[in-house]
Amino acid sequence: MLSRVFCRTGYDICYKYCFERYLVVIVAVVEKTVVVVVVVVIVVVIAVVEVVVVGVVVVVVVEVVVVVVEVVVVVVVVVVVVVVAVVVIVVVAVVVVVVVAVVVVVVVAVVVVVVVVAAAATLDVVVDFRVGGKGGYLW
């Protein structure tokens, strides 16, 4: 209001106060523009940070899932290999035990047969000698 009065009454005073008035308006516009620009920059930065953070979180989650899947696959493979190895070891052990048992039985049977045959032959010769069989006694 004061600037209006001075602007109407004298040129010098009018110029001074009118310029100040316009300067105040310009400063206010610049301030508001700066505030708007700062707010827009903050919003854009927050949006970019959110996108980056969400992207990083998604990447981290994907990496964690991949690592978990890899660990599960490794554990499953190790378990399968161990189970197969145990089964193979047990089967081989059973086969070896059976083969050894069969060999032992065959060897024992052969030894028994040989001993029985040898004993029978010896008894036959002794019996022959005693009874006067083919070999006979010398008298």
TrEMBL record:
Annotated signal sequence range: none
Single GO MF annotation: transmembrane transporter activity
GO-annotated cellular components: membrane
Recorded superkingdom: Eukaryota
Keywords: Membrane, Transmembrane, Transmembrane helix
Matches recorded under PROSITE patterns: NA_SOLUT_SYMP_3 (PS50283)
Statement: the UniProt record of this protein carries the keyword Transmembrane: yes
Transmembrane segments: 21-48, 54-87, 94-121
Name by which UniProt lists this protein: ABC transmembrane type-1 domain-containing protein
